[in-house]
Amino acid sequence: MQLQLAEFHHFEAAGQPFLYLVPSGGIFALDSLSRQAIELMRQQPYEARELHSVLVAQGADSDAARECIEELVAARALAPEGGWKDAPDEAPAKFPLQTLVINLTNQCNLSCQYCYEFGEDKVATPEGKPKFMEFETAKQSVDFLFAESAGRKSVHITFFGGETLMNFPLLKQVVDYSREQAAQRGVSIDYSLTTNATLLRPEIIEYLTANAIGVTVSMDGPKEMNDQLRVFANGKGSYDVIVPKVRELLKQHNTRPIAARVTLTSGVTDVIRIFRHLKEEIGFHEVGFAPVTTSPNRLYAINEKGLDDVLAQFEQLAYEYRDYALRNELHGFSNVSDTLSELHQGISKSHPCGAGLGLLGVGPSGDISPCHRFVDSDTHALGHVSSGIDTAKQQEFLTKGHIHAKYDCHTCWARPVCAGGCYHEAFVRYGDTGHANLHYCDWIRGWTDLCLRIYGEIATHNPGFLNHFEQRKAA
Ligand code: SF4
Ligand code: SF4
To answer: What's the domain count of the chain?
Structure first.
């Protein structure tokens, strides 16, 4: 069998060489013999038999050399002539829905300037549509979820807004109705919500706790950072209003971890300080960061230098995460957990995320969208919960979003985890959900390489910690 080197990204961790195999998404630790085999293959292609003879001539045991070659082929580090086949070209014809994001309202009591729903780069066209979802539409949404998730043993509802808690009575009705429907079908269901925390009150916290509803709070750090853009309509910052409520939430809600989600903008890039504040001073269990999605000319957009600075701070926190992991402790920097989880599962994505596939959004009007960020956008609607999904539009969206349709990504080693990046970001930047997010390739590759090194160190020194990611997978 004629062999050739397959596509991989080489990295070192814990003093040992590793290969990240593309496109399979596998991670392979090289011992001295497999390293030798790879070095030989780098110089010229060999037949399997020839490679074996050369390794033996260089002093390797014959059985060990054979096993080594077999392992490298099985791991897809070495490929038969013509290489391994990539993921199939077509978007899957039918993929059972797992998560429905229900936007209970498109109204919000804050006026965060960077908001993708109300800000300058918004894609929503809410004019003439309901501001608050009716129970009838919510029921149809739940029925739609169960109809489209047929075959799944568990489904998930995420409540979203606007500000989600502005329609808390409907949230409770949806939980009651969907729980009843799930029980009738023998399916398990769980819930989460995202909120700006301004409307939290004791009875809401009690309800969220009793029903094990996961909570993510959008918050940008200490007062002087949070209040730069997370403001009420009169310009007043929201920090002083939300902090006592968040502290109460963290004190009472003990049935699910509570996360903070930070949007980084040009004036808010002090990642380490934000993390310390939210994790240690406020007490969130997890903190995740995302650079703002925006056109590059907005005042709050982060420039390239700012992104480099953010990545350097991410690196510091990621190494802290590693130190915690080696002591079997949870650190709480969720960007690392999310990427390690994908690496551990050997994910090789045909699409950047579940939008339009296993995840859909529903707006207050009942319009279906690829995810919560496209809710209320006429251009991106994929049907209505009363009539079902428009499969032609869904296919068009997924075909455009497939990694094979993104020419620039074809030779990129980070494509198993990136697959071109967020559709919403692509639309805001390039006016096309199917465009690769080429403005942040260096960032993605830098971040993926860093997480691979962290993964390699944990896999070498405390492999048991990686079981956390098995649990996340099962969840
Ligand atoms: S968007 Fe950039 S980083 Fe992502 S897969 Fe494509 S080329 Fe690679
Ligand atoms: S399109 Fe973007 S915002 Fe929507 S689910 Fe995917 S990654 Fe998230």
So the answer is: 2
